[in-house]
Amino acid sequence: MAHAVFIQNPVSIYKDSPGKVYHFPKRYLNMVEETVGDWVVFYESRKGAFGYVSIQKVRNILPDPDQAAHYFAFLEPSTEWTFEHVVPRSAPDGIAIERSLRGAVVGQSQAV
User: Fold this and answer.
1) Phi, psi of 49 (to 5 degrees)
2) DSSP for 26-77?
3) Is the dihedral of CA 81, 52, 47, 25 positive or negative?
4) Nearest 5°: CA angle at 1, between 85 and 21?
5) Span 68-111, pLDDT tens digits
6) pLDDT tens digits, residue range 25-78?
7) Which of 3, 53, 66, 78 reaches 20 to 30 Å from 98, CA-CA?
8) C-alpha closest to that of 71 among 17, 3, 21
9) pTM for the complete prediction?
């Protein structure tokens, strides 16, 4: 199972369409391929809601026919769950929440 956070903003250099498609460069292809059939979390930076806004399943990936070395991750429309409230990125101590997930092993605790 892959664990991924996709950064998506209303103002973006990419051809994202929230709830439908996520556009990304080739350098992320291997990581995004691992998410096919699985849930991803969507995060908007300061240009957007500034926090986690939804989750959705990735259906498949296809190359961008108009932009070399870019791809589209198509999202499963019926699986989109938009959060009632934006979930902040940082814990009260100011550390990014996903930092605690890096390198975590099931069944073992890890100091951050």
Assistant:
1) -75, -15
2) GGGHHHHHTTBTSEEEEEE-TTTTSEEEEEEEEEEEEE-SSSTTEEEEEE-G
3) negative
4) 55
5) 999 999 999 999 999 999 999 887 887 777 665 555 544 443 33
6) 999 999 999 999 999 999 998 787 889 999 999 999 999 999 999 999 999 999
7) 78
8) 21
9) 0.80
